[in-house]
Amino acid sequence: MDIYRKDMKLKQIREQIKLNKKQILMKGGNIKINDETFPSIKNIYEKIKNDKKNKEKEKTKLFDVINNLVNDLEKSILEDNLPKNIIEKMIKEKNRLLKIITD
Hints:
Helices cover 92% and strands 0% of the residues. By secondary structure, it is mostly helical. It has one domain (14-102). The radius of gyration is 36 Å and the shape is rod-shaped.
């Protein structure tokens, strides 16, 4: 009888191992199904990354434009014979533009 019990336990263990393997394969199948959703997540990530790059490019362009405006204002202040009140307004505007650039 002792051998019979051991044989039955071994049989149960083997069946449980088979069931566990099937469950593992089924879970692995679910992972493969989820892999199909990853490209859409990658696409979203790429779009966000591209948007960020585009915003940085746009910010750099705006920085360059404002910097050119400041330079033009400085030249105008130095070269033109303008009344003092206009020069003061131009200097204030220049400082405001510089503040925008630094922020």
